[in-house]
Each structure stands twice: as C-alpha cells, then as structure tokens.
Design goal:
Blueprint: H1 14-20, H2 23-26, H3 30-46, H4 52-70, H5 83-95, H6 108-144, E1 149-154, E2 157-163, H7 164-189, E3 191-192, H8 208-214, E4 219-220, H9 224-229, H10 232-258, E5 266-267, H11 286-309, H12 323-347, E6 349-350, H13 352-360, H14 366-375, H15 380-397, H16 406-410, H17 420-423, H18 426-431, H19 441-462
Parallel strand pairs: 3-4
Antiparallel strand pairs: 1-2, 5-6
Helix pairs in contact: 3-4, 3-6, 3-8, 4-5, 6-7, 6-12, 6-19, 7-10, 7-19, 10-11, 10-12, 11-12, 14-15
Bound molecules: arginine.
Length: about 475
C-alpha cells in the first residue's frame, strides 16, 4: 500500500507506477536522505513536535537502515516510488507507528531539495580533488618542459615560437578557473531547504537553523516556494562541468594531433593507447578521443536541465524529477574521465626533436624580423611589409629567412646587420617575449611559482 493512498479508491495503473518511479536512480541519494531524516527527527524531538523518545528511536533505526543498505543487507525495492518513500517504508516496517511520525512538518518536495543539494556537494568535493590532481599533473609537465621550444599556432598554422611549458600552463589557467567555478557553485548550494514543506512551509514550530547546523549548511533558504522549486544549482553545476569538459576536449584534440605521424610532437605510453583489430601498426589515442567525445553528452545534459526548467510554474512540479539522471551522468562522466586522462598526460613522451624541427620551419620567427626592423626605427607596418616580401621570396625558393646571406638581406633593408641571425633563433624569439604572462623561460618560471603557491593554498583549503 502506498503511503499516500488515503484519498484513492483504486491502485495506480502498473504503467503509471513504472513511469513515476525514480528509485532506480535516486537510490544514490540514500545516504543523504537518511542523514537529512535523522536531523529532521532529532529537531522534531527537540522542539517538542514529537516525543523525544520517539525521535531517538527514529534516529537510531534510521542509522541501522543505513548500515544495512551499506552492507547490502537491504536492497532497494523497485516498487517504492522513490528513495524518500523507500526509507520511510523501511523505517515503518521496523518500528511501526512511531516511524509514521517522521514525516511531520515535511514534504518530499523540501526533502528532495535537501537530498540533491547534499549529494551534489559531496560529489563536488570528490571532483575538486580530481581537478587538483589534474592541475598538479599539468604543472609538473610544464615545469619539466619550461625550456622545450615549439611553434605556437593560430588558425592551426605555425605562428610564433613558444615553449611546451607555456602551452601547458595555458591549460593550468583553464583548470584553475574550472576549480573556482566549482567552488562558487558549491557556495550557492549551501542553503538548507527543510522547513519549506510542500511549498508554504509548515504550521509546526520547526527549528530550521538547528537542522542546517546539524547537516553542515551555512545558511537556510529564504523563501519556501523558491526553495522547493529551485534547480539553478543543478543547472549551474552542469554548466561548470560542461565548461570543464570543453577544456578537456581542447587538450584532447591537441594530444590527438600531436600524436599523429604528421606532428610527432608526443608519443603516448602503451598503457594509455589502444590498437586496431585490423591494422597491426596502429596505436590510437582512444583516451583523448573518448574524453573529447564525451564532452557532447555534457552539453546534452546541460540542455536537458535548462529545457526541463523552462516555463515551469511555481512551485514544485514532477518534471523536476528529471534533474537527477542528467546531473548524475555529468558527474559520472567527469569522474570516469579524469583518472585515465591524468595517466595519459603523466606518461606521454615529449618529442623535443620534432618540436625543434617544426619551430625552425614555417617562419615562426617572421614577427621577430619585423620587430627587429621596428626597433631600428622602421614603422611597424613598413617592417611587416618588408618581412612579408622576404617570406614570399623564401617560400618560393624553399628557404628559411636565416639561410639568406647578409648582403641579400640588406637589399631588402639597409638596417639589417649581422646580429639578425642571433635575433632569428627560436630561443631568442621566445626569451625576448618576457612580459608577465609571456613564454620566455623566466616568465614561465614566474607563472609556475605563482601556480605552485596557488596549489598550496588550494590543497590546504580542501583538506
Ligand atoms: N522523486 C521526486 C523528485 O525527484 C521527489 C519529490 C516528489 N514530490 C511529490 N510531490 N511527488 O522530484
């Protein structure tokens, strides 16, 4: 019999039961549901809404239910409508009428709002740790390759010399923002909704602050109708995780490109590559490809949540039950993706020779020639034009600028001197870009120190 069957004269149709039931996915909030119920029961006793001894028995029995679930002694009843009903049923099965007092002054609407906030907060803690590990990994790679020169690209065309360390530190910045977005999101989740009831709070003198403190929340929600119908934090988290995976997909794409024979900038470790069932020579970057591919479902989940909430009237509507599968999928995807991605990054071999070869061809030093002339008084636009002509000539003759002898260079500009050859070396090009945030060895060393300080602080915060 359903716990709400009082006003009904018939059973619900079997198809409706199946359609309505959410236990197959909301059972993963069992821990939070039970913790929330324990705090609620304790508060009911303390406020004199139910006898203190009843409250104590409810709390004790709920903790036994949780132990039994953990040990696999109790399995979720697929006929229970949702995790909230299941836990209550289990409680009533064990202590009868006393168990029926638990739901006083509470609705599943504020209950689910609590459970999902607590569950997502717990998950965010795990994901934060994982992102920190990824950042550390990226930082170590950057440190090792602070002086590994490679071409930087725009439009996927060789543009200017940079270092692999600088390139890695660009990703460090992205992941740092992801981490901060995640923390912001958790801050907004940190409001305790119990006491909002179905939508209009309740007639009992509940102590909402007591429950909030018991459950580790800093604040209580400020409006009962908003509290039961707000899923902004779910959307926000889906968005934060989608942006994170977008960053992962960009790094994945680069790894895939770099691992091609055409680039040969990196070689993936055997433990993080896969073979082909037909082509014996193949070594495929599946981890990076899958990570790139899974980014799609992250966007899908975000869109699901935004569309699900669109135009919903206040307050609770059953549509909102659809929030869980989408956000749980985003969480699971991220948690599944980071560990192999981390392993792949930490073990990939950097081919410094190939990077060096690439930076020396393709005129990555052309801007430096223009800058050389500009420093000598040529207006930049004119210097750009002269350099462009030289590049055109070299392209036709299949030469590098530095292959040309000084008299020939002088026929383009009298101001070019012997020191041009030094100026055009990739190492000079990189190290002259020594503004804060630039790729020069020293500038990257500074960025790395700053990042290390950040990591120190961040890991202390999550301890
Ligand atoms: N399973 C529901 C959900 O996930 C719980 C809240 C149900 N409330 C209700 N009045 N039917 O949203």
């Amino acid at each position: 019999m359903k716990l709400w069957s009082g006003r009904f004269s018939k059973d619900t149709d079997k198809t409706v039961d199946d359609f309505n039931s959410s236990i197959r996915f909301d059972c993963r909030m069992a821990k939070q549901d039970i913790k929330g119920s324990m705090a609620h029961a304790e508060m009911l006793g303390k406020c004199g809404v139910i006898p203190e001894e009843d409250a104590a028995l409810i709390v004790k029995t709920l903790s036994e239910v949780w132990e039994d679930i953990k040990e696999g002694k109790v399995s979720f009843d697929p006929r229970a409508e949702d995790i909230h009903m299941f836990v209550e049923q289990e409680l009533i099965k064990r202590i009868g009428d006393t168990g029926k007092k638990l739901h006083t002054g509470r609705s599943r609407n504020d209950q689910v709002a609590l459970d999902i906030r607590m569950n997502l907060t717990d998950e965010c803690k795990i994901i934060k740790e994982m992102i920190l590990e990824l950042m550390n990994n990226v930082l170590q790679t950057a440190k090792k390759h602070r002086e590994t020169i490679m071409p930087g690209y725009t439009h996927l065309q060789r543009a200017q010399p940079i270092t692999f360390g600088h390139h890695m530190m660009a990703y460090f910045q992205m992941f740092k923002r992801d981490l901060e977005r995640l923390s912001d999101c958790v801050k907004r989740m940190d409001e305790m909704p119990l006491g909002s009831g179905a939508l209009a709070s309740t007639t009992y003198p509940l102590d909402r602050y007591y429950v909030a403190e018991k459950l580790g929340f800093s604040r209580i929600t400020q409006n009962s109708m908003d509290a039961v119908s707000d899923r902004d934090f779910v959307i926000e988290l889906a968005s934060v995780l989608a942006i994170f995976m977008m960053h992962i997909s960009r790094l994945s794409e680069e790894i895939i490109l770099w691992a091609t024979k055409e680039f040969s900038f990196i070689e993936l470790d055997d433990a993080y590559s896969t073979g082909s069932s037909i082509m014996p020579q193949k070594k495929n970057p599946d981890v990076a490809e899958l990570a790139r591919g899974k980014t799609g479902r992250m966007y899908g989940n975000l869109m699901t949540l935004l569309s699900m909430m669109k135009s919903l009237p206040l307050a609770y509507n059953k549509d909102m039950q659809e929030d869980k599968e989408a956000i749980f999928d985003s969480i699971d995807t991220v948690k599944m993706c980071i560990p192999p991605f981390n392993g792949m990054l930490a073990t990939m071999r950097i081919r410094e020779d190939a990077m060096d070869e690439a930076v020396k061809t393709g005129f990555a030093n052309a801007t430096d020639l223009a800058d050389y002339l500009t420093v000598k008084g040529v207006p930049f636009r004119v210097a750009h034009e002269i350099t462009g002509k030289l590049v055109g000539y070299c392209t036709e003759k299949n030469l590098k600028i530095e292959d040309l002898d000084l008299p020939f260079l002088k026929s383009y500009s009298e101001l070019i001197e012997e020191d041009i050859y030094q100026a055009l070396k990739p190492e000079t090009c990189v190290n002259r870009r020594n503004l804060p945030g630039g790729p020069a060895f020293d500038a990257v060393a500074e960025a790395i120190s700053e990042a290390e300080r950040y990591m120190d602080k961040a890991s202390k915060k999550t301890e």
